[in-house]
Design a protein that fits this description.
By secondary structure, the protein is α/β, with parallel strands linked by helices. The chain folds into 3 domains: about 70 residues, DNA polymerase, domain 1 (Orthogonal Bundle); about 180 residues, Rossmann fold (3-Layer(aba) Sandwich); about 60 residues, Winged helix-like DNA-binding domain superfamily/Winged helix DNA-binding domain (Arc Repressor Mutant, subunit A, Orthogonal Bundle), CATH 1.10.10.10. It is about 45% helix and about 15% strand. The protein is built from 18 helices and 12 strands. A 9-stranded mixed sheet has the order 1-2-6-5-4-3-7-8-9, sandwiched between helices. The chain has a 3-stranded antiparallel sheet with strand order 10-12-11. The chain starts with a helix and ends in a 13-residue tail after the last strand. The relative contact order is 0.10.
């Protein structure tokens, strides 16, 4: 119990500095001994030096770990140390796991079976549908979806998991009580109710650019595999994939439109040996679990009856947005009949309307790596 409090204190003082913190405690033999060390002894630690050691000692003198633990409890924020049974097993296996992680929600042993889905903050409609659908299909099999709750692909992955009633974990680049981005407040609350938001940064820590690459190692570390959906050649998603490779975890990627710059990241990964993913079955196969969790043909389109008009329009849709005018022209349907059929397809969950009266298909029988026309 005493060690937990000293570990907590150090995590407050040195969040995001896992390697340095581990070296510090290893040098002194215990978190308590390190806490009681003087400035002269601290200054010999690599990366500290005189000025930094002085600043660290001053901040340490103003921090009461017992008091901080009480504040956490009153805020509804939990924390777990690396030596606690509840510490995520997957995370223990990486090179520099955070000695302490803060979280809201629940961490479960079943979260060991986890896949990270990450990607760009500005995805195409194709990317959003693919990320959400993959997350939904994987959580239906009992797999936890891990991501970073950022705009775009991350949020779509969390939404897909939640839509299936599955578990999802968001790793934040800020405190576990800080909503970022602001529009994800409801999403964050839903994640807490159906999984957890976790961070190595103490409550109140605001998002800063340097914290996000640091947190990416935790996204991959919590997961058995990392799946990239749409990402530029230089992006946080590829940083996460690099961490996964360093950690000895599987890396997978969804192919996309060859003229879309956001396809370059996944395509580069595939060229380098990442598994090309077209559906949940490919993920299970890569993890060696396909026989344990056979994919059933539960496509929405296969379960639901469609009128002739609905079938005609459904056949004209794909993951590429098609305008209402084009659908009316190509289907030879009267505008009112086409609009009525599209409305019913949307109610059945087989299509989605995008801004500007564009439509895409959301049924599972499409090919995920279909390319845009022309």
């Amino acid at each position: 119990m005493e060690d937990r409090l000293y570990w907590l204190g150090w995590q407050y003082l040195m969040p995001g500095a896992g390697k340095r913190l581990w070296s510090l405690v290893e040098h002194f033999g215990s978190p308590r001994a390190a806490w009681e060390a003087g400035i002269k002894d601290l200054s010999v630690i690599s990366g500290l030096g005189g000025d930094r050691a002085t600043g660290l000692a001053e901040r340490r003198s103003r921090l009461d770990p017992q008091q901080e633990a009480g504040k956490l409890d009153s805020m509804g924020v939990s924390y777990v140390c690396h030596s606690d049974p509840a510490y995520p097993e997957n995370l223990l296996g990486i090179y520099d796991p955070p000695p302490v992680i803060f979280y809201k929600g629940q961490l479960k042993a079943t979260d060991k079976l986890s896949v990270a889905i990450v990607g760009t903050r500005k995805p195409s409609p194709y990317g959003l549908v693919v990320a959400e659908k993959l997350a939904k299909d994987l959580t239906a099999l009992g797999i936890t979806i891990t991501s970073g709750m950022a705009r775009g692909i991350d949020s779509a992955a969390h939404r897909g998991a939640l839509a299936e009633g599955g578990r999802t974990i968001a790793v934040l680049g800020c405190g576990p009580d800080v909503v970022y981005p602001k529009e994800n407040k409801q999403l964050m609350e839903a994640i807490i109710d159906n999984g957890a938001v976790v961070s190595e940064f103490p409550p109140g820590t605001q998002p800063e650019a340097w914290r996000f690459p640091v947190r990416n190692r935790i996204i991959s570390g919590l997961s058995q595999a990392t799946l990239v959906v749409e990402a530029a050649e230089r992006s946080g998603a590829l940083i996460t994939a690099d961490f996964a490779l360093e950690q000895g975890r599987d890396v997978m990627a969804v192919p996309g439109n060859v003229v879309n710059p956001l396809s370059r990241g996944p395509h580069r990964l595939i060229k380098q040996g990442a598994r090309l993913i077209e559906g949940a079955g490919d993920v299970l196969d890569e993890l060696g679990m396909e026989k344990l969790f056979p994919i059933q043909d539960n496509t929405s389109a296969g379960k639901m009856k469609m009128s002739c008009e609905e079938e005609t329009l459904y056949g004209l849709l794909s993951l590429d947005p098609v305008s209402l005018d084009e659908l009316i022209t190509r289907s030879n349907l009267l505008p009112q009949k086409a609009m009525a059929a599209l409305m019913y397809l949307e109610i059945k969950g087989l299509t989605r309307q995008l801004p500007g009266k564009f439509y895409i298909r959301t049924g599972r029988d499409f090919v995920l790596n279909s390319f845009s026309r022309g």
